[in-house]
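Please annotate this fold before class:
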Amino acid sequence: MLSPTDIARAEIVYGPTSARYSGNSLGGVLRLETAPVRENAIRLGAQGVYQNYQYYDTDEDLFGYALDGQADVALGSRGGVSVAYRHFENQGQPQQWRTVAPGTPYAGQAIVDDALGFPLRIAAQDSVVESVEDQIRLRGNYDLGAGWEARGLAALLLDAEDTTDPRSFLRDGAGNAIFVGIAGVTRGQTRSDELLAGLGLSGEVSGWSIDLTASRFELLKDRGRQSDGVDVLTGIIPDSGIVTDKDAHWTSLEASAERTFGAQRVALGASYAAYAGENRTGAVSDWRGGVPSAVRNSSGGETRLMGVFAQDAVALTPMIEATLGLRYENWRASDGFLSNGGTRVDYASRSEDALSPKLALTFRPDDATELVASAAWATRFPTIGELYQASLIGYGPNVGQIDLDGFDPDLKPERGFDLQLTGSRRFGNVKLTLSGFRQAVDETLFGQTILVPSPTDPGVPVSQSLITNIGEVETWGVDFIVAAEDLFIPGLSFDGNVSWIDAKITDNPLNPTLEGNRFPRVPEWRANASLRYAVSPMLDLAANVRHQSTPERNLENSASSRCDTYYCVSPFTFVDLKSSIHFGRFDLDLGVDNLLDEKAFVFHPYPGRTFVASLRWKGGF
């Protein structure tokens, strides 16, 4: 919802170390501060992207472009208003490939991928993803006098996505593409309209710095249309299908007050966040334009989180500061329901409380050195999606029906305990930072396959995949960061980091055999490096490298858990290059992402080598 020119400051807070943020900060917080509008300016921009994506028999030339404009109007010396518009169209690589059943008439033409330890008989690709997006933004700030300032933001996002052209790699005797024997192939469309609005007010009262914020998000419309799956006997994708309508909104209110009392900096605050969501699915005879005559399946619910916090930073000595914080939160889940045909189940409301203490000690022996040790507790409560948003059955005779056993409305909250030790020192133009941490999260929320009683015969256990609580996941990690300016020669800057992470399941009452396994999708090694060179006032060059090692794909850490193909969470090393040319009021950016065209996956594929060109202009009035 923000462009780079809207952002004045970005800050990443690792872990739940601050009492200011709710338990959702268990993994960290990205804090963005918008830049005030101070001058009259017009900004215009155009961008084009291109990639040729090849994998298996997929060979697609994919294009995209964006056009944007922004007008900033200063309101004298007291503030300003900014209005912006952006139009974006893009073609994305297919997100899945489909397999053909062995023994079917054309299965012999399939591409066999054995990287998982068992054969994937690749026979078709999902459609290229055609996306169109329009965004309108309005932002402003105004000095009210007496030290008070108001700020506001409103954004409307209109999004359309089409996946209507799946392609088969199989051919019949006449050379025509055919889907016989290939399961799961569908066509689809999605249309959504989203509105976000926020207001802020800051100033001083009796020596206290006050900040008040309110925001509201509304999913004005979200309708997804999908055909039924292909008939594997005839290879025909039917006109019948399903329509899914989604409703969602959230409201957030925050208030904070800060004041310095001698050697103490005290912060107090309160927050309120309410979320609501609902999904409704109905069958139609024409998936492209049909309107459901009745709701076949639906699910939804609401959650509310209220919190208060107090934090005190005390200068114990000129070199040592202690920060103590405490956050109290009350969570409530209500109006949870599930309907399937004529049957509706309503779930009882739930309410839970959590106290999250925080402690940090900071030692600054000189202006160049800082050591920080912290301990923090945090509680993350389940979301609506984890509690109530049941998924649909994807295959078999009940495809499209709601999965009655696909969720648990009694999920427990995650409770984390985080320890961090960070040291940093500046050596001239170079800053080095070394961090170590341990995090233990009880009742981790994650999908796993467990045995549950059969719905037809409770005495017979059957396997079921759903989001559950894992007793404890323990993570140890070390992160080394280098930041350098004017390195060796003026204008040459470098930023880099290397991280080692060891995340393991230490307790899992639902399936003790998984204890000791590595937690999925967390790579043991990550590394990033960015080299930037300001050649002259007219030319900037940059190169970036991103790397991750192979993480586990599943909780079982099975023989096929680590792999490097479709269906996997693969390793990667991406190299990106960029140049910026400045001439007059114009900036021309030329770049290439994933220079080596490395194919990588998080089940779905990352983009391949992508060329990017953009032209920006800024003028006053």
